[in-house]
Amino acid sequence: MGWLFLKVLFVGVTFLGCLYPLVDFCCSGDTRGQKPNFVIILADDMGWGDLGANWAETKDTANLDEMAAEGMRFVDFHAAASTCSPSRASLLTGRLGLRNGVTHNFAVTSVGGLPLNETTLAEVLRQAGYVTGMIGKWHLGHHGSYHPNFRGFDYYFGIPYSHDMGCTDTPGYNHPPCPACPRGDGDGPSRTHERDCYTDVALPLYENLNIVKQPVNLSSLAQKYAEKATQFIQHASASGRPFLLYVALAHMHVPLSGTRLSADRRGRRPYGAALREMDRLVGQIKDKVDRTARENTFLWFTGDNGPWAQKCELAGSVGPFTGSWQTHQGGSAAKQTTWEGGHRVPALAYWPGTVPINVTSTALLRYETRTTLKCWDSGLENHGPRLQRLETSRREASSATCLGREFPDASYSSDRSHTDLPVGNPTC
Ligand SMILES: [Ca+2]
């Protein structure tokens, strides 16, 4: 099995570059019948320095640090974009925003989503016989056919976009703080642009196509995600079929959960407490993998983009990638920028017996499409209509293997409903 990991490493890895070689593995003739499970855990707005294994100042990620010691840590890994929707679109399609069409964040009022002619990893794997599940933040369109259940996922539980894009009765920590959902006959506050808060629509929680709670209870969301993730792994394993589970966490995006955020000994309250809560959630999922499908599951942890620096003490750490030139101009060097802190993210691979233990890779890992095409060519059935598009992509492939920062338009995406760029935050 060691050859498989070497293949992963050398073929070229990004969010999907890491996975598609494994898809190739699962559908190649000589390994048929040994399809691995995939568990992808994606943190939101987590800084490179928020992982203790990366940055010694951080002491809040015991489970992730253990995962790093038991697997492989990538210290020069880059997200495909520095904001949520473009990064997630690339994660699921293996294509940069310039090609998949998602170059900006979707809003609450967006009627579209990830273009329907894009093929997702979940669709590929489902056609290869996988059970597919997604838990957490989608943010790739929330109306009609853009819903996760129509983009390859058999099961979905989560919120349609960021949890600061709707009011809740448990607002949590934000900067500046937001009020709870308005009550009564409509005399309450409407969306207050100046306060960067949304109150027109209460944040919904979906299970498949149904809203099961609105507004969502942010205080219990992490535990709900842990329950649903472990249940999915249990049921999928019992089915005898390989599975894909994509868990897109609410952490570390603001608002930070308002409960159990006890004082942090290093003064990072409540950020440090929320980081520990996320770490426990990841630990619960990893424990379930270990107890259920340890030998045949590839577990991947990473982030969608760097920390949201404008949130001051409620933002994570970029570690050493402070962008001193940029910050001295009064701007940010993190999320929403093409500076390194915006897209250089933690990345861990874990698969006992296959992924080497306690290894740190300094390889600069990049966007890759050619391996995707190789897999498509290797015999997954019923892809005829899509192959024509992929043939076009093949001609682009040599130029597509690039770092996001070499294509600034692809990795730059400003969500001006939140802030103008580049800016610092004079209130920090
Ligand atoms: Ca994000």
UniProtKB/TrEMBL annotation:
Stretch list, region Disordered: 406-428
Signal sequence annotation: none
Cofactors that this protein relies on: Ca(2+)
Residues covered by the Sulfatase N-terminal domain: 36-355
Keywords, in A-Z order: Calcium, Hydrolase, Metal-binding, Signal
Membrane-spanning parts: none
Gene Ontology MF annotations: arylsulfatase activity; metal ion binding
UniProt record similarity statement: Belongs to the sulfatase family.
Full protein name: Low quality protein: arylsulfatase
Annotated organism of origin: Lynx pardinus (Iberian lynx)
Higher taxonomy: Eukaryota, Metazoa, Chordata, Craniata, Vertebrata
